[in-house]
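wait is this the right file?? whatever heres the structure
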């Protein structure tokens, strides 16, 4: 929420995505976040929850974090 108004999930700037490590195939968006601090926390939690998969933190066309690095 921003100023008491709900923001549609697809409008949130950060996404945390799960990818298949072997084939580098996109599987799904795990979560979306409004700010970088929350997005990083979700990214780190996703890494622990899905250690066998590639996790990307994305903002638009940029990838600020990638578990494969």
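ok assuming it is, sequence goes like this
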């Amino acid at each position: 929420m921003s100023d008491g108004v709900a923001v549609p999930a697809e409008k949130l700037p950060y996404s945390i995505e799960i990818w298949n490590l072997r084939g580098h195939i996109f599987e799904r968006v795990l979560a979306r976040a409004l700010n970088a601090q929350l997005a990083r926390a979700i990214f780190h939690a996703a890494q622990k929850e899905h250690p066998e998969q590639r996790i990307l933190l994305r903002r638009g066309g940029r990838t600020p974090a990638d578990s494969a690095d």
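Residues 9-23+32-66 form one domain. so i think its the right one actually
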